[in-house]
Every structure is written in C-alpha cells, then in structure tokens.
Amino acid sequence: MLYAMQKGLCSVSAAIVITVMTATCAFAETITITDIAGRVVDVEKNSNKVVLGVGRTIYSVALLDRDNPFQRVTAWPNDMIHYDPDSYRKDLAAFPEIKELPVLGNPYHHEWNLEAVMLSASSSGHRSLA
C-alpha cells in the first residue's frame, strides 16, 4: 500500500512538473537568428532588453523604433563615441539618458566581457562597466 501511494505521488509530481515546464515554455516563445559571424542562437521573441555589440548598430535600431531607439538598450560599447562623435552628440541631445548607459568598452581590445553584459541586462540602474 505504501509503495502504491509513493508511486501515485511520484506520478502526480511528475505531471505537475511537466505541466509547469510546458506552461513556462509556452510563455517564452523563441526565434532562431544567425549573427554576422554565422552563429545560430535562439532568443526570446519580443525581447524588451538589448545589449549592442557595436554602438553604431543604433542606426538600424532607430529604423525599428523611431520614437526612442535607446529605450531597450541596457549597455553598449564605446565605438560610436570615438568613431562617429557627431552622431553621438546629436543622439545625446535628443536622448540625454544615453549618457547613463553602461559603456562596455571595445570588444576588439578585450575590454568587453560577458559578466558585464549580464550585469547590465539584469540591473535596473545604470553604471559604468568598462
């Protein structure tokens, strides 16, 4: 009798876990993308946060979000500040909050790291990560 109760509890527990996992997966719909280096990755569809690997990618983001292209950006590297200072100054005038975005440094000079990216994506406040 005890064995039958344990078996029944295990079955119920497994059913609950499977139901929760299925429900969680249903809420987190993903899409598959291929980056410029040819890497394939699944990302959550309709993400509300993004870290720019190249600051000048904001030009493309601005085509998709004309009102405030920086609203979903949680961090970015410093290449736009150095390589396109005129555009940076114009963006800064239009969106002063970008001055508070964490700067991840230059990914090509080993200044950019995964820990900083994850910290920026999970933080609610902005701080320098370079």
Question: Would you write up a description of this structure?
Answer:
With 130 residues, the chain is of the alpha+beta class. The chain has helices spanning 2-27, 58-64, 79-83, 85-94, 114-122; strands spanning 30-34, 40-44, 50-51, 73-75. It has 2 domains: 1-44, no CATH class; 48-130, no CATH class. The chain is built from 5 helices and 4 strands; from the N terminus they run αβββαβααα. The strands form 2 sheets. It has a two-stranded antiparallel ribbon with strand order 1-2. The protein is globular and about 40 Å long.
Name a few traits of the molecule:
single chain, 130 residues, alpha+beta, two-stranded antiparallel ribbon, two-stranded parallel sheet, 5 helices, 4 strands, 44% helix, disordered N terminus, disordered C terminus
Topology:
Elements: H1 2-27, E1 30-34, E2 40-44, E3 50-51, H2 58-64, E4 73-75, H3 79-83, H4 85-94, H5 114-122
Parallel strand pairs: 3-4
Antiparallel strand pairs: 1-2
The H/E string reads HEEEHEHHH
Overall tally of structural domains:
2
Structural class: alpha+beta
Q: Numbering strands along the chain, what is their spatial order in the largest sheet?
A: 1-2
Please give the number of β-strands: 4
Question: Averaged pLDDT, please?
Answer: 73
Name the helicity range. Answer: 40-55%
Strand content: 5-15%
End-to-end Cα distance, whole Å, is 63 Å
Characterize the main sheet. Answer: 2 strands, antiparallel
In one word, what is the shape? Answer: globular
Sequence stretches where pLDDT stays below 50 over 5 or more residues:
2-25, 124-130
What is the radius of gyration computed over CA atoms, rounded to a whole number of angstroms?
Answer: 21 Å
Can you count the helices?
5
